[in-house]
């Protein structure tokens, strides 16, 4: 995963042994040595074979090695590089060839996924794979501004991205809730607007290098002119408020769209930004710099007579024009450092430079056609990247992300327009994630997005996806991804160190409230509120809910005793679970908020059992009342993912 | 935990609510603001109360707060500081007073441990605690040379140390297997002798600051003149080999005591070391620098005629004298930076300067009286720290560490001699630990050592310790300690993503081979060998083994049906477990090495059940043969921790 472009299964297997070794030939970038060494260690960790080869550092060091990697040339981590590879597994040797080390790294990930076993040994099946990505931009954005995400969180996610053949890490570094970059010249920015949570410049350079070693491009983002509370808390004088004196802005502690906006009419605004870019741009190697540009609500501009007068004098008819005026001032600041501008779709106005990348994000939630701006951008001559439909913080279903193709079948685009659609990017906004739970929001779901962006558009089977994702999810653990292990940590805290079986069972039928409803318009959670709660242990695509729905579907087709038994299994489990939750709660106050919902589920389950036993005492109408109890908003901030399935059989 | 010096339980409770706030008065160091903020977040995470107070940054910011902290003065993170505190919990307020913020930080940890709950709410019991440490040196050493331990591993362990009121982090940074310090002047050291795994100077300073914020002193160690393979791989010309040309030394990939030793007769040796200290000393604030000095086997010195001639010319009669000559050259290099020398006990010879700290480590394993050198050092006028008995990498029992008092009851020491015994230090050598399993070797066991060093010598009850340690272990999770969660990760890899119940059950009766036998004299494991195996999921004090032993003890006192039933429970569990392991193994080769041992346990269990049912078919002699099967060395590198208990009932 992602599914390769072409696979031919051959007969036979390649048996792994202690003597397995790797050799590298050609003219690759040094990252292949690091990558191949990492490959060896991961394979050794999975198999426990105690390989004797230590660190690969040289070309053609072990000519007799069973795995031969040949890369013609050194790859550059940039757009439109050749990332293809060919992998040939035979019974006595494995040959991985690629134009560059970038393709070879992808091939090594494929090989790791090919690992099979019987009861006593590990092997690779004989196979020929020819593979290359469909899109050149396969990204993940992590918001390190709302909740700071330390270096180790970023690094382990870069490892996971590489495992899924993703190649762009978009790093959202600045927002209303914090400035996360150490500044040598404007040190007050990180000193006063980060609560001590920022990346040093050395750490940033380290992460850019770490990403490059994994074939991943890092795109930094400083979000302007809106989302500017953190900047303006330090430089209030460049804010658009009429009364922008000391203390007029503060770092935000809540979520939402705030008014704080840079003043595009003030020359000092550009002096500050120019100096910031002079310091920040050299930390990054990418050709693009993301300047945000989203969700400027214009309130401060509307309320400021001087800004209104400026607009008139410049012939700018609305706030969009004024923002474009602002954006265009940034273009030369970035060009100076060899970088082009990228921004959220709001930057796309008639005067925007055509070498900008338009980042499409709005959709039906924002009253727009889903992916509409992506198509417009491509038609208007812009390169463009899709994030609408890939907002993984919305806690929507796996299927919704997987079926979200950057180029839908019904789109009418010329080949040239299509070529401007670079790909897509999963967006991990961090209002409700900390280092404890962030991995569980990103993984394994982002692997489905990675497959959408790499594999052929015809690869859409959900059953196959879920099956493969189960293995991917398990294997991501070896890269330090914490989505499975930290769920247990949260559940242990909730159960107060008692058994976690019942809370775990319940978590497998519950999903966190979707579409930002959990945070009640950004008002429920502060940025320092605890995220160690039941909703944080739950995720979308609740596993038992999916299993239950399959049972319901079968039962509706054939209400045999056997299928009824399978339903019974769940009902009995949920009744016992509720009883156990009540018991746990005696010594675990954090179980309390779960009880109303688990009681509703238990009550309804009991009625179904009575019905199966022909002892039903309440009417279907009353059953429907019970069913609707499952939808009552609860203080656990979750919804019962089995509601729709239950509705089918009420 | 550690148990306070004086506790008075009063009547009533202090109920926690959303409005709980903290106020700080007095004249403390700024670290108390960071510490109090961290305290709030941890308490909020445990209780889910959504406290509204965000970041503490000022003195007397919330005079009406329920928790009042007063510190008279700013604490210095150094030896013999006043770390005492007084904590008064009343029904409507909490008062924490301390001479310095260091004591106040300890008081906050105590308060967190006082958290209680019923079924619906959280509270603190009313209590008066007066507390201060017995020893001023309560340390943990982490070896980052054998296996590199990244910054996040160090930081989470510093957090856990602070939670256990420990105050010295001894950082073993250099050994045969690697040089872990970025060098500006001798960059080849980290470039060529670290495999890319080293701390940047900025990271080191960051860790020293992070530790200081938690009241912890960082003692760096560069181990010389032995353990020098990494240094000599870069500077072979200062090695003691006769033929010390290019390539004569290499970074070691195995464990053990190697010959590589600096040449104490070569002036260049001191030029290099002096320049290294000039660069490394300023990174640390501590008054001491650990120069190692252990396990110099003298082979290279004995074999080098020039060194022998040098000794004669200087009147040095043996290698000990020569090493002291070497050590004394380092004293002024360190003094230049305001630091005194600390070293492993081998540095204690008659000419060693009296302001050195002697680090006692050898014991019965090394053919010496346990703790003998500690007593000698104190009597000889040296300050001294005990690590013998605190080697947590030996995988010995909790009890052995807990009962190891730096000043045993039978020791005859003057008060002045006693005062030179500064305390002790748990030693986490890293031959067999990686970031995946290191926490499980350190925690929760080191909490028992922390209690030994903080609490009164009379606090020795094992039942109380085990009970409290269970809670401590669970709470360490909130600091990011991975001992519980990563065990599951390892077991999932072993079971190949099948159920982990059986492997987990087995891990609870197995312990890793002790006293370094797992590594077969350093020959079995390379530094890059996998440590994701069954032995890595096991730990000392296997939980079911302890529970089983209690059942056996009761049964031997009273072989009632009830007690027999309790034994049966275990036997039946182990028989079922083995059956399940066999089943798992069909799709999990890593289960294979477990089967011989689990079969032996299952076979013996079956015989016991037959005996209970009066159906015994084999003789006691044959039963003994079966019993001894449990002790056969197995490829899983573990031993059955129930052997001794079973022996009692055969």
TrEMBL record, chains A, B:
**Single GO BP term:** glycosaminoglycan metabolic process
Highest taxon of the lineage = Bacteria
One Gene Ontology cellular component term attached to this UniProt record is:
lysosome
Domain Glycoside hydrolase family 20 catalytic span(s) in chain numbering: 135-456
Active site positions = 295
* Keyword list, A-Z: Glycosidase, Hydrolase
Q: Which Pfam families match?
A: Glyco_hydro_20, Glyco_hydro_20b
GO molecular function list? beta-N-acetylhexosaminidase activity
Protein name per Swiss-Prot or TrEMBL: Family 20 glycosylhydrolase
Q: Which organism is it from?
A: Flavobacterium muglaense
Which lineage ranks, top first, belong to the organism behind this chain? Answer: Bacteria, Pseudomonadati, Bacteroidota, Flavobacteriia, Flavobacteriales
């Amino acid at each position: 995963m992602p599914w390769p472009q072409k696979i031919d299964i051959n007969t036979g297997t390649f048996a792994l042994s202690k003597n397995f070794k790797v050799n590298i030939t050609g003219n690759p970038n040094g990252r292949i040595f690091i990558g191949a060494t990492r490959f060896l260690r991961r394979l050794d960790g999975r198999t426990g074979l105690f390989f004797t080869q230590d660190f690969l550092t040289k070309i053609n060091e072990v000519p007799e090695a069973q795995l031969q990697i040949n890369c013609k040339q050194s790859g550059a981590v940039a757009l439109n590089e050749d990332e293809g590879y060919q992998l040939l597994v035979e019974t006595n040797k494995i040959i991985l060839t690629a134009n560059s080390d970038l393709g070879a790294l992808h091939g090594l990930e494929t090989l790791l996924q090919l690992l099979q076993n019987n009861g006593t040994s590990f092997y690779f099946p004989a196979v020929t794979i020819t593979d290359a990505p469909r899109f050149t931009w396969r990204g993940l954005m992590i918001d390190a501004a709302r909740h700071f995400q330390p270096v180790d969180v970023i690094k382990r996610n870069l490892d996971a991205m590489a495992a899924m053949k993703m190649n762009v890490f978009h790093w959202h570094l600045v927002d209303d809730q914090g400035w996360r970059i150490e500044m040598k010249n404007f040190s007050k920015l990180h000193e006063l607007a980060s609560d001590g949570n920022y990346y040093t410049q050395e750490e940033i350079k380290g992460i850019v290098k770490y990403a490059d070693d994994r074939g991943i491009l890092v795109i930094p983002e400083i979000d302007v002119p809106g989302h500017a509370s953190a900047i303006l808390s330090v430089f209030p004088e460049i804010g658009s408020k009429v009364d922008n004196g000391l203390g007029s802005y503060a770092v935000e502690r809540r979520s939402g769209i705030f008014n704080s906006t840079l003043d595009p009419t003030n020359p000092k605004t550009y002096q500050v930004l120019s100096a910031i870019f002079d310091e920040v741009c050299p930390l990054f190697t990418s050709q693009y710099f993301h300047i945000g540009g989203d969700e400027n609500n214009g309130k401060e501009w509307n309320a400021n007579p001087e800004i209104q007068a400026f607009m008139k004098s410049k012939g700018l008819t609305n706030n969009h024009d004024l923002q474009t005026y602002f954006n265009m001032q940034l273009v030369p600041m970035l060009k100076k450092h060899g970088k082009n501008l990228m921004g959220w779709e709001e930057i796309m106005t008639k005067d925007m430079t055509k070498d900008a990348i338009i980042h499409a994000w709005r959709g039906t939630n924002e009253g727009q056609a889903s992916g509409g701006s992506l198509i417009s951008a491509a038609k208007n001559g812009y390169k463009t990247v899709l994030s609408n439909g890939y907002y993984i913080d919305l806690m929507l279903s796996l299927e919704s992300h997987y079926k979200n193709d950057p180029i839908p079948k019904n789109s009418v685009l010329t080949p040239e327009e299509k070529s401007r659609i670079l790909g897509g990017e999963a967006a991990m906004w961090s209002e409700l994630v900390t280092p404890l739970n962030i991995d569980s929001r990103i993984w394994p779901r982002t692997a489905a997005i990675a497959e959408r962006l790499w594999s052929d558009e015809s690869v859409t089977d959900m059953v196959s996806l879920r099956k493969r994702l189960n293995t991917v999810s398990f294997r991501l653990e070896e890269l330090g991804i914490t989505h499975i292990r930290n769920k247990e940590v949260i559940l242990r805290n909730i159960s107060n160190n008692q058994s976690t079986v019942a809370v775990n069972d319940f978590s497998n039928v519950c999903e966190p409230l979707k579409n930002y409803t959990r945070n009640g318009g950004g008002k429920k959670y502060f940025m320092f509120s605890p995220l160690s709660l039941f909703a944080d242990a739950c995720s979308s695509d609740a596993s038992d809910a999916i299993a239950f729905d399959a049972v319901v579907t079968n039962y509706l087709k054939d209400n045999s005793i056997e299928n009824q038994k399978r339903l019974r299994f769940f009902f009995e489990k949920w009744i016992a679970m509720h009883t156990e939750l009540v018991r746990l709660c005696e010594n675990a106050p954090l179980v309390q908020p779960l009880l109303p919902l688990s009681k509703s589920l238990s009550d309804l389950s009991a009625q179904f059992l009575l019905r199966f036993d022909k002892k039903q005492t309440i009417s279907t109408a009353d059953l429907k009342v019970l069913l609707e109890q499952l939808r009552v908003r609860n203080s656990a901030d979750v919804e019962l993912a089995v509601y729709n399935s239950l509705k089918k059989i009420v």
